[in-house]
Structures are given as structure tokens and as C-alpha cells.
Amino acid sequence: MKSIIKALVLTAGIAGLASSAGAQDAKKVFFLLPNSTTIRFEARDAPLFKAAMAKYAPDAQVTIQNGEGDPARQQRLVEDAISQNAAVIVFAAADSNLAAGSLQAAEKAGVPVVLYDHDAIGGKAAAHVVFDSLAVGRAQGERAAALINALSKKPVKIARVKGNQGEYGTRQYEKGQDEYLKPLIDSGKVQVVCEQYIQNWDPVLAQSFSEDCLTKNGGDVDVFVTMNDGMAGGIVAALIGQGFKPGEKAVAGGQNADVEALRYIAQGWLDDTVMKDLRVQADHAAQVAASLLDGKGVPQNLVNGVVNNQYMDVPAVFMPVQNITLDNLGDVVKAGVWTWKDICKGIEDTKVCKENM
User: Fold this and answer.
1) Are 124 and 103 in contact (CB under 8 A)?
2) Distance from C-alpha of 255 to C-alpha of 259, rounded to nearest angstrom
3) Is the pTM of this model over 0.90?
4) Alpha carbon 243 to its chain's center
5) Which of 52, 155, 187, 193 lies 20 to 30 Å from 343 when distance is taken between CA atoms?
6) Buried b vs exposed e over 36-53: b needs ≥16 C-beta within 10 Å?
7) Per-residue pLDDT reduced to its tens digit, 97-143
8) What span, in angstroms and rounded, lies between the C-alpha atoms of 62 and 2?
9) 77-116 burial by CB neighbour count: b if 16+ within 10 A, else e?
10) The CA-based dihedral angle spanning residues 142, 146, 149, 150, taken in that order and rounded to the nearest 10 degrees
């Protein structure tokens, strides 16, 4: 009997060691998120990426961590990932301008980095998986120009609430918007009464800036032009706080098609948001990561451009975008991004929800 028990214990021990060895041998992928203020990263990108990795690299061990808007913390996470034998790091920079240390640490350790959404300046990266940022800016600018031209007054007073200064995305969004806004500014049709870059895309800072702008101008701001849904939400909060009603002020230039932004569109607070199908982005990032894990490099069939990060031309995987307004809100549902039940939660009495629920 004792010999049987001893054999069972020994077998269990060997099995445990084998299991432990298997866990240690698993190829490790770390997905480092930039912050919690842009809610899509925690709520959607992370689970979508993990699911896609299970499809393309089922044996990989995926760890999700958040830089919480702090580039120093994110660099510590990179260094910790390296110490844990990371095979690939998927990196959405907390601050693109302060990401060089993270990239250099990974390069020194020989760990390939896949940039995700945000750019990262000053270091080596294997690829950059991102929606076409210039196309995003153009979509935002074209819609803002249409709203401005629909107003009979001159000048139309606008406030520009921009993203994190110096980022590739911010520069491209601004460039795209300016293709439509600059001619209106030069002609005198538009007067920019307030403009500011918002550090780390923080909605609270966007709200504070918008409140100050409204106060400074006695409420005389016709259109707010921004660059993503989080900051658009901050602008809406400022309008609500100062007693405005939906539609009294135009808010244009959302991005990400967050469900909260779609609700604002349904209610009339926000005019538009650029839909980026995060399922496609997560899928492409997982394909790149899985290929790197297999030692096959970046899949060339996915590469369709480059992004210069002031260190190198990073092979880019660009994806298309679509602007969403009240008129085509249903396209988000058709694309499978959200359901009408998701969008209309708590706002069932709005016209568009009554028509579609």
C-alpha cells in the first residue's frame, strides 16, 4: 500500500513539474495598454486581442497590463515583461513622446515590439497596427466643415480640442481636419476662439478646457471640434454643466464609436464619431504577434504603409474608417460592433431608439 501511495505521489509530482515546465515554456505575449481614461482599451481592445491570440497562437500566454497614463510606469512594465522572458510586446504607448526608453529596453533585450494604435517615438518597432489616421482627420474635418457651412452667421466661432501633442495620430488628425477647416479660417468664415492640445487625451482636462472656453466667450461658441470620444464626452459634460441643451452647440470629431458616444449622438449632444472596427485591429495585431512568435516576421500581406517614428520607418498595418452620424447610426449595428440594445440602454425614449428597438 505504501509503495502505491509513494508511486502516486511521485507521479503527481512529475505531472506538476511537467505542467510547471509547460507554463514556463509557453511563449509569452504582453499587451501593454496606455491608460484607463480612453475606455475602449480595457473594455474592448484587451478582450478582443486575447480572443484573437487564442485563435492564431493558442499555446501563447497573454498578459494584459495598463500603463495608467504614466510612461515611467509603462517602462517598468516593459522591463518586467522582459524579465519574465516576453517573446513579443504589443505596445499602446501611454505617452508617445516619452516611449523611447521602453522601445530601447525591448530592442536591447531582443524582444520585438508591435505598436498598437498609438505611435511611439524614438525606438525600434517591428510593426504599427493602426487605423488610417489621416483618413480619420479628414472624416472629422469634412463633417465639421459641413456643420459650419450650414450656419448662416459669419464668423462661426469654434473651439478646437486636440489630442496629446506630438503624437503621430494627433498630427495626422489635425492635418486631415485642416484640409477642410483652414480654408474656412482663411476666408473669415471661421474664427477659432479657443484651442488646446489635451495631455494624454484626458476627458477631465477636455471638460475643464471647454468650461473655461465657454466662460471666456460668454457661451458664444458655435462648434467644438475634437478628436476622440473621450474628449467629446468631456465637452458634453461642460455643456451640461453650463445649462445647455442637446443641439444648442455642435460637438464634432468623435472617434472610436464608444457606446457612450453613440448614445450622445442618439440624444443630439454629439454629431459624429469615426467608427474603427476594433475587432479588425485586434485580429491584425494578433496575426502579427503570432507570426513573430513563430519566427516568421511581420506578415507582408498585412503591411500597406509606413509610419516614421523619428527613429525608423515602421512597417504599418493601416485599416479603413467610417464616420458615423445620426443618419447612419445603424451601420454600427450592421457591423456587429454594438447592438441597438447596447446603444439605447437608458435612452429608450429617443427617436432613433424608438424606431429601432
Assistant:
1) yes
2) 11
3) no
4) 30
5) 52
6) ebbbbbeebbbebbbebb
7) 999 999 999 999 999 999 999 999 999 999 999 999 999 999 999 99
8) 42
9) bbeebbeeebbbbbbbbbbbbbbbbbbbbbeeeebbbbbb
10) -170
